[in-house]
Structure formats: C-alpha cells, structure tokens
Amino acid sequence: MSPAPTPRPRDAATPRSRDRDATARGLMQAAIRVLARDGFTALGPNAVAAEAGCDKKLIYRYFGGMDGLLESLGEDIALWLAGPPPELPEGAAYGNRIGTLLSAYAEGLRGDLALQRLLAWELAETGAPLRKLDAARSAAFGQWVGGMLRGSSPPAGVDAPAVNAVLLAALHYMTLARRSMGRFAGLDLATPEGQARLDAALAFLVDRAYGPAPEDAP
Amino acid sequence: MSPAPTPRPRDAATPRSRDRDATARGLMQAAIRVLARDGFTALGPNAVAAEAGCDKKLIYRYFGGMDGLLESLGEDIALWLAGPPPELPEGAAYGNRIGTLLSAYAEGLRGDLALQRLLAWELAETGAPLRKLDAARSAAFGQWVGGMLRGSSPPAGVDAPAVNAVLLAALHYMTLARRSMGRFAGLDLATPEGQARLDAALAFLVDRAYGPAPEDAP
DNA sequence: TTCATAAGTCACCGATTGGGGACATGCAAG
DNA sequence: CTTGCATGTCCCCAATCGGTGACTTATGAA
C-alpha cells in the first residue's frame, strides 16, 4: 500500500508491453494511485484504466470487474504495511510495547495516503468487496502487532484488547481528520504543535492505562 | 439532525403546496433523509428532489445548487444535537463530567444516522461546503459541552483538550466502524457484549486519565 | 512460414448525472 | 375581473458512468 513505484500514465510512443501479468499488476498499482490521489468516490474502471494507460476492458477480462480487482488487491498483502516492525528491547513491559507500536504505526499511516483513503472508505460504505479488503488488511495488521506483543501480557484487570482498540480508533480518526479537515475538537492538527499534543495525549493514556494502578502505589 | 418528522415522498394526488418556505424546508429535510439512508455519495440534486417530491430545479432557484442547500443546512442549528444535556450533580469532578458527557453523546450519536454519515463524509472528502457544515456542527457541539464543563477544571499536568479529543475521536471512529463493518481491531461491535466492553474501556481511560495520578497515592 | 490464440484497442450502448431553458398555473395586488 | 409574478413542472442538454461486442495485432508453437 505505497503511492506506487512506477508513475505509469502510458507513454504514447511505447507500443504497449503485451504482457498480461505486467499489465494486471499495472492496473492494481493504478487503482492504488487513483485511490490515494482522488479517494474512493473516483475509483471506477474508467479512472483506473486511464491511470494505468490501457483499456478498461482489460479490467473485466483479467479481474472480472472492479470488485475482482479490489479482491486481488486484498490478496496481495505485500502491498500493505510495508514498514518493518520497530525495534523493541527484550523484556519491555506491555505498556511500553503498545506505546512504541502505536507511534510506529501512526508514522506509517500518516505517510500512506492510500491506506487512509481505504479506512475512510470502510467507514463510509458497506459492501462485499470492501469487507474482503478490510479482512485482508485487518489480518495483516493483526499479525504485525501480534508478533510484537508475543511474550508479554497486560496488567491484570485491564481489558487490553478493548483499550487498544480505543487507542487505535482514535489514531485512525485523528489521522483522517488531519488530512481532510485539518482540525478536530478544537485542536489544530495541521501544526507540529497540535500533532505533538496529540501524540503526547496518546502516550499519556497508554501510560496511565498500563502503568501502575493508582491504588497499587504503597 | 434527526431522521425526519415527515416522510414526504410526494402524494401524487395533492397538487403541491405552492409555499416557497415550506418546500425549501422540505428539500432540506429530504437532503438529511437521503444522507441518512444512502450516504453522501448519493446526495445529489436528483436524489434530494425525488425524495422531497418536487422538481430539482427548485434546488437551484432557492439555494443556488446543492452547495447552497448544504450551507443552509449548516445554518439551521436546530436540527443538530437535539438531545438536551444530561443531568449532572452539582460539584461533580472533572473526570466524572467528561465520563457522563461522553456516554450521553455516544448514545445520541448512535441514534443519529445522518450525523454519522456526515462524520464519515468529513473524513472522506474535502471541500468548501463541507467545511462550513463541519464548522457549524463543531460550534454547536462545543457549546453543548462547554456549558456542561463550566465551573470545573481538569487535574493539573493533564492536557485535557488533547485527551478529550482522543477519546472523542475514538468514540466517533468506533461508532462509524460499528455501522459499516460491525467489527474493529478484533472486537465484535455488533453484539451488546462488544459494545459494553468498549464503553467500559472508554470509562476506564477517563477514570485513569482524570483520576488520581499513580504517584499521588501515599 | 503458418496460424491459433491471447493481448490490446476502439466504438458503442443504455443509464444516470448535474444543470438550465421554456412553459404552465395558482395567488394576490391592482 | 384582470394581470403580474412567483411557484412548480416538463423536457432537453452535454458529460460521464459502468459494461460489452467486434476488431486488430503481436507472439509462440507447430
């Protein structure tokens, strides 16, 4: 899920590669580019084919339509979450792991416009192809985070999955709001200061949630 | 911002009211209904006029187009956040107020499909008319919450606006995710149990954020 | 070299979109 | 009663949409 290696609005001189796999890949990357640039409302056969520089008919021949193309995109997990997991000290506490994991993911998400557009899409529409895309993305993400938490467990009495979901949801929302509105709930997300306050608030909540409970201190 | 008092797909027998203000209001309410039912991707002149049961030409005559209609919707703050503020004990602590306020808002948001659609819209697209709509909504919300927090202040050392923004963002995201995907980050949001875990996690975070700091305990 | 087949292109279809011009009609002022 | 005007309706427009049939052309096997 990166902006795309090859900016491939067809060169009119080159006589088309006549290589099915290559053009199919080109269509997939074009779809990602269109999604990143113009959002899901513009993600149609016409736009994708124009971006890829070939005829839209090939979308139907090779993928059976846009739904099939999206499905193929979901299966190609290599395109998702390209960044390697962040380094972690051996015996790091659960809260520490969640904190660094969250900020690493935040940085990756901020740089991945297509992923942002996909998240917004998931919130706006329902539909079978979208569900499959989300399932693939969720699975990849789950694996990414799962491997990083292996061997450490949250403090007792804390519903860690629910708390983590809340923090992740907040991160998603504010990242999307930053791009589209630039501000949210009175905070200016466009400025580095606003962004810093947000990151600090997230870190603060992680610390309070997974640090020692108030009554634990002697 | 409620589903609409009058389900007004024109009665073919009644010969049209010939009342400019009434039809203008009807168009606004129709727009809200279309937004709630089909989402912002379907919110066009054709759909709104069909829903209102009159000709789309009137949208251009009375509002100058869809953008003007949306702007008028924003100015009509009476349609937003109809619910009255929840009751609060006199000397309630800041954390308590945030908690009850958050859950009251959550309940209202869950029941207001049009507002949900609007939030998703704001995350998906940019544009002048949308910005004005959001500004109106944000202002109304700010007043709603502002009045309820008057006279109490957060614990020192806590960036309350940022923390509240995070919690609110999480609430928004999970409410939208519940409607569209039904699940998020491994949590099943459709079941009452999942919803309860989420509410509990939010309350837990509020408590930890605004309760006594770990080192405060003797 | 021939030739079947797949890769690619082009032109077209019906439906729907966001608009606007031309016209009918009811109401209220004269 | 007549007349002016705002209200409402109808029909048309160009553009775009998703989708497909018919065609050309390159390539690899015989």
Automatic annotation (TrEMBL), chains A, B:
Pfam family membership, one: TetR_N
Keywords: DNA-binding, Transcription, Transcription regulation
Superkingdom of origin: Bacteria
Domain HTH tetR-type: residue ranges: 21-81
InterPro entries: Homeodomain-like_sf (IPR009057), HTH-type_TetR-like_transc_reg (IPR050109), HTH_TetR (IPR001647)
Residue numbers spanned by region Disordered: 1-22
Protein name: TetR/AcrR family transcriptional regulator
Lineage: Bacteria, Pseudomonadati, Pseudomonadota, Alphaproteobacteria, Acetobacterales
